[in-house]
Structure formats: structure tokens, C-alpha cells
Amino acid sequence: MKQVSLLLLIIYSSGFCFAQSPTHLSTDLLEHTDRVFLDGYPSGIALTELGSTVERYQTVAIRNSKPCLGWIVNSNQPNTLQTAYHILVASSPTILDKDEADLWDSGRTDSDQSVAVSYDGKPLQPSTVYYWKVKT
């Protein structure tokens, strides 16, 4: 019996180690909302630096106070399906780096949904940069 338990633990651990983070994060079905463009070309300017620039820049404007979030689940294994997600939304990347959220923590949500997941946190303010991540 101990051998079976140990084998299951190893299989579970190895599957967990090979899990990949979701990619192609989108907000209101728009990808690359974190990028700044100059005259239509990608730039090295961060969204938080826009107030100090004089160049003509373009950004994605999310005008929805309750945006929909989405992502693609990646895996090297065939037939991999998402069974749950956990979304964190924060006002700074430092907060997210600690796996914390000051605006919305969805908690573990048992769902295969990865498109158009509605934001359900504190009210978002216009002209403000927010940060989010998802674990599946």
C-alpha cells in the first residue's frame, strides 16, 4: 500500500512540475493590453511611464469597469483540460509577485471557462494601470 501511495505522489508531483502557465492573456478579448506603441510600432516604453513622454504613443483603452479576462491553457501533454482557475488582480506588480491581490482574488474556482471571465472585484478607476494573473 505504501508503494501505491508513493507512486501516486510522484505522478502527481511530476504532473504539477510540468504544468505551464497560461499564455495569451486578454482583457475584453484584446491581447497585448500591456504594450505601448509609437506610430504603430512596438516600443520599449512601459505603461507607467506614459506621463513623462512627448512622443505620439498608442495604447489599448479598456473602457469597461468590469472587463472580461481570458487566457489559453498550455501543456506539453495531449488532451489537457483546465478544471479550475484562480485570478488575482492588483494595483502593482509587487503585490502580484507575492501571489496576493488588493483588488480581486477570485479564489479557486472550479470551472473550465477560460474566455470572458467577468471581473468581480473592487471598482476600477479610469486611466489607471492594473495588473492581473491567472493560475490554472
From TrEMBL:
<protein>
    <recommendedName>
        <fullName>Alpha-L-rhamnosidase</fullName>
    </recommendedName>
</protein>
<dbReference type="InterPro" id="IPR016007">
    <property type="entry name" value="Alpha_rhamnosid"/>
</dbReference>
<dbReference type="InterPro" id="IPR013783">
    <property type="entry name" value="Ig-like_fold"/>
</dbReference>
<dbReference type="Pfam" id="PF25788">
    <property type="entry name" value="Ig_Rha78A_N"/>
</dbReference>
